[in-house]
Amino acid sequence: MSFLSPLGLLALASVPVLLWLWRLSASRRQTRIASLVPFEHLLKRTAARRKRLVINWLFWLQLAALLAATTALTQPQLKLAGSRTILAILDTSASMGARQGLTTAFDRAKAELIRRIQRKSPMDQVLLLASAPPTPLTAQPTSDGILLARLVEEQKVALMGGHLATTERLGRAILSRPADEIWVATDESRPSSAESASVRWFAVGQPAGNAAIVGVDTLGPLCDPSDARLMVTIQSFSEKTAQVRVAASQAGRQLAQQHLSLAGKERQFLTLALPEEAQGLIEVSLSASADALEADNHVAVSLEPKGAKTIAVSVASPSMAQTVLRWLSACPAVTASSVEKPPADNSILITDDPDFFQRASGPALLFKAPARAKPVAAYWMVLAEHPIASYLSLVDVVAAPINVSEQASPGIAVLAAILGGRKAVVVSADESEGRRQVFMNFDVSGQETATAITLIFFNSLRWLMGESNTRAMDSSVADKNLLDPLESNLLYRPSTWAASAMSGQNPVAQNKKKSRPEGVSHPLASWFIILIMLLLLLEWWLYTAKGNKVVS
Amino acid sequence: MPTPNGWLTPTLISKLEALQLSIKWVRAGSKVGGRFAVNRRGSSVEFADHAPYYAGDDIRAIDWNLYARLDRLFVKTYREEIELSVEVIVDATLSMSLPRTEKFTRALQLAICLGYVGLAGRHHVRVSLIREGDLTASPSFHRRSDLLRLRQWTEKASINGKIACTEWMRKTVAALHVHGGQAILLTDGMVRPADFFQALHVLAQRNVEIKVIQVLTPQELHPSTLATAGTLIDAETGQTHELAYAPAELERAMAEHNELLARFCKRQGILFVQHHLDEPLERFLTKTLPMRGVLE
Questions:
Q1: Over residues B159-168, mean pLDDT
Q2: How far is A548 from chain B (nearest CA, A)?
Q3: Preferred mutation among B243, B254, B258 to probe A, highest tally of A CBs within 10 A
Q4: Could you give the angle at which helices A145-154 and A105-119 cross, rounded to 10 degrees?
Q5: Any chain A CB within 8 A of the CB of B236?
Q6: Cis peptide bond upstream of B99, omega within 30
Q7: Which residues of B98-133 are buried (b: 16+ CB within 10 A; e: fewer)?
Q8: Is A21 helix (H, G, I), strand (E, B) or coil?
């Protein structure tokens, strides 16, 4: 037995105090008797100071309670050889919800873990952790198999990615030392870094085809209230072509749907037109013929009511201003007005003044027209999949004055023009500062009828009007899944287990060093506290049941 | 001190009626052999036995029929119906309430029972209490039906203060005109032996046949159970003393004190019986006292 807190032995100083208290109590006790006459000849001789302490079993009870309390303070630990400390990691990431047949990978993982717990030695202690997010399910290692099985059974799949190495490091930090054995129940394949006799890898995942919603955006009505649309990006994580249906519904009522064929590993971008009155929480769902994971098939989008949008125009160039106003006049849902200073509200600002652009608080579009308004015919390329590039050809010939001297604008380069062998970004979009911004490095003067430029302008306007507010169906964190579809890829599961999880040591050499597991320490302090409670109960019973006779 | 109700059952009363106070034998018409004069009040006699004739015996007592048959002279002896004055004296000093008040309660119960035995034997019974203050003595009871009055009077008895036994005895025997008869002293004996002996001597001088019953609790027999440490306080005198003796010493001292009282009584021809509270009252009355000669 070892003591975690040997200083607790100082509490033994209370034993002499107990003895002194008993002596004091005994010496102060007064007893009335019938007569001292029978003891007169004794009284005549000098009473020798009593050397022997007169005690009874009440004293022994109190002494036992003091010793038990002292022992509990020293936090004794009993090391039992032959028992092990096991670190059990249950992968609760979103990919574990992949269904194959009647069961999911998570069900199989839980069943395997419970089976291992039931078969373990009664002395083995297990520290149980979940990986998404990395969380200890038991505060400290325990050998209670029933508790462990219940905790495993209660776990549910999280709508987020998990990291097994981080979870293992967390477990090691709690244990303050490496575990004798590590159990990992996951859908990831066993990596080479886990080739160790002390790591039991329970791979419950199987490659399966999956289709997922990987992005959703809303486009509010622009010119016509019926223009409200949902921009949905879907991706196939399968080798085969799948027939996919994407639908938008609200309160059980279907608003829009689209059927399409999604080739293997293809990503597609589609729009769903919404009814004019559609607003509030819209549910977007995907159903595919080969789809193992359900968690990435649903997203909720909040569509805020859009009234007539106010657009403030402050373009110094008369020709550009005329073109812009002509475009805007074609949209009855838009109220455009010329302003001399940046709007203080959330109106969309269209300007060619950089200072105005910076001071605006709402979405804004900045024209960076070249000094010389000479149109140049060039190939314009779509550089990124962005709503601004909707309906544009990947490569198109566009003639417009382009500002090639301008430095790169922040954000995503959406369109670029090839000029003299060089690529010049003509449209970029940014929302890193919390508001949407579009930068156009060309002159739109006289381009009212140019299809590509008109499309670019209205796509930009629509994007500036829209908001990206999506969330998962059950309000847990799903943005990660939409942005980082690692959990959706069930064909190839990259391992989140690292060799550093084994403290950088050679696991083989480490196993050779340990021929038998070290003993597990069992804390005994709680048992001594229970003993103290029992002694106090017994003392109380003796006092009340036997009365003052206990004292004498 | 009220006695607990329900202890004086009809069964116990019927057993008491079968008992009688033991009295020293005397021959009819003679005082030979008797050390104490008996207070004769009755007039009827009954034949008891024959005894050989010796010179000096009353020739009127010679049984001539027996002489005719056996050709030897025998005199008749008679059992006289003697009416005694029985004084039941109960120690009611403070010492009788310690270590438990049951000691005094038992003493009162013994007084009632022995008093009833006396009433059943048509003796005159009076109960008095040794206590501080004025003399506390009951009226003289004579009939069996006086049991209720005896009990009622006794139940009102209470403990009060302390008093030297000798002083009380002198005052009492003079006030009550005690002469002859029997005296049954119920006490715990927690008095100075000299005082105790003198008190008995005062009674003896009055030609009283004395019987002493010492009532003790089991704790008094084993004083180490009363206290193991601390200070002892004499309930009557208030004297204190630090307890620093071994249990064996205490027990030996108590035993020696009781032995001293018993030896004195034996030397003086006084019946001395110890009664422990853990002995049932009925058993003590019906078996122990007859065995020791207090009752028959």
A1: 87
A2: 12
A3: B243
A4: 180
A5: yes
A6: yes
A7: bbeeebbbbbbbbbbbbbbbbbbbebbbbbbbbbee
A8: helix
Q: Whole-angstrom Cα distance, residue A4 to residue A316? A: 79
Could you give the strand order of the β-sheet that contains A520-523, starting from the edge strand earlier in sequence? A2-3, A76-80, A520-523
Among A28, A30, A49, beta carbon nearest to B233:
A30
Pairwise CB contact (< 8 Å): A33 & B241: no
A36 touches chain B (CB under 8 A): yes
Question: Nearest 5°: phi and psi at A200?
Answer: -95, 115
Q: In this complex, is the C-beta atom of B91 within 8 Å of any C-beta atom belonging to chain A?
A: no
Q: How far apart are CA A463 and CA A457, in angstroms?
A: 10
A495: amino acid identity, one letter: S
HSE-CB of B225 using CA atoms within 13 angstroms: 8
Q: What is the mean pLDDT of residues B258-281?
A: 93
pLDDT band at B45 (very low <50, low <70, confident <90, very high): low
Cβ neighbors of B253 (< 8 A, separation 6 or more) are: A38, A39, A41, A42, B223
CB B241 to CB A27 under 8 A?
no
pLDDT tens, A409-431?
888 899 999 888 888 899 999 88
User: What pLDDT, on a 0 to 100 scale, did the predictor assign at position B226?
Assistant: 73
Residues 53-82 of A with CB under 8 A from B: 54
B236 CB neighbours in chain A (<8 A) are 34-35
Q: Hey, is the C-beta of B188 within 8 angstroms of any chain A C-beta?
A: yes
> Which pLDDT score, from 0 to 100, does residue B161 have?
83
pLDDT in tens, A47-57: 555 556 667 78
Could you tell me which residues come within 8 angstroms of residue B33 by beta carbon, excluding any fewer than 6 positions away? B25, B26, B27
- The answer to whether A186 and A267 have CB atoms below 8 angstroms apart is no
Secondary structure (DSSP) of A281-321: EEEEEEEESS---SGGGEEEEEE----PEEEEEE-SSHHHH
Q: Which of A30, A39, A43 sits opposite B231 (nearest CB)?
A: A30
Amino acid at B216: L
CB distance A422 to A439 below 8 Å = no
ipTM over 0.85: no
Q: What pLDDT does residue B28 have? A: 35
Reduce the secondary structure of B175-243 to three states and give it as a string.
Answer: HCCCCCCEEEEEECCCCCHHHHHHHHHHHHHCCCEEEEEEEECHHHHCHHHCCCCCEEEECCCCCEEEC
How many Å is the Cα radius of gyration of chain B? 22
Mean pLDDT across chain A:
81
**Tokens (6 digits) for A288:** 């595919």
Report pTM: 0.46
Please tell me the least confidently modeled range out of A255-264, A448-457, A511-520, B235-244: A511-520
Cβ pair A194, A496 in contact under 8 A: no
Question: Which residues neighbour B99 within 8 Å (Cβ) at sequence distance 6 or greater?
Answer: A33, A34, B217, B219, B220, B226
Which residues in chain B are closer than 8 Å to A42, comparing Cβ atoms? 245, 249-250, 253
Structure tokens, B81: 């119906």
- Share above pLDDT 70 across residues of chain A, in percent, rounded to a whole number: 84
- Cβ separation of B234 and A54 shorter than 8 Å? no
Q: What is the gyration radius of the CA atoms in chain A, in angstroms? A: 38
Token duo for residue A412 = 């995503």
User: Rounded to a whole number, what is the distance in Å from the CA of A53 to chain B's nearest CA?
Assistant: 9
Percent of chain A with pLDDT over 90: 16
Which H, E and C letters describe B117-161, residue by residue? HHHHCCCEEEEEEECCCCCEECCCECCHHHHHHHHHHHHCCCCCC
Give residue A224's pLDDT. Answer: 62
pLDDT exceeds cutoff 70 at A475: no
Angle between helices B102-120 and B10-17 (to 10 degrees): 50
Banded model confidence at residue B5, pLDDT cuts 50, 70, 90 = low
